[in-house]
Amino acid sequence: MKLKPLFDKVVLKKAEAEETTKTGILLTGSAKEKPDVSEVIAVGPGGIIEGKEIKMVLKEGDRVIVGKYTGTEVKVDGVEYTIVSQSDILAVVE
Questions:
Q1: pLDDT of amino acid 36
Q2: Is pLDDT of 28 > 60?
Q3: Which of 1, 8, 49, 87 registers the highest number of CB atoms within 10 A of its CB?
């Protein structure tokens, strides 16, 4: 099954936690930091929302930062995704 977001919605998947530190130390499961970065999986077409034209500036594969309690979490085929509005995304990671 594939998710296809509507209007200004964006489907995100949390980035994997780092397995090693910058100095090369291998981390155990409990020591891994929760990632703040998500990957854009799908982007809605935009359009007219509440009388305003919304143009989508994100694309699949972008890495973004969203608020900790933002969006709706869904599970599809055993994979967890978060669906947010484009305006809920705080930054694009380059």
A1: 78
A2: no
A3: 8
- Stated as kind and residue range, the H or E segment containing 9 is strand 9-14
* Cα distances (angstroms) measured from residue 32 to each of 2, 10, 15, 17, 21: 29, 26, 12, 6, 9
Q: What is the pTM of this model?
A: 0.78
In three-state form (DSSP H/G/I as H, E/B as E, the rest C), the secondary structure along 39-94 is: EEEEECCCEEECCEEECCCCCCCCEEEECCCCCEEEEECCEEEEEEEHHHEEEEEC
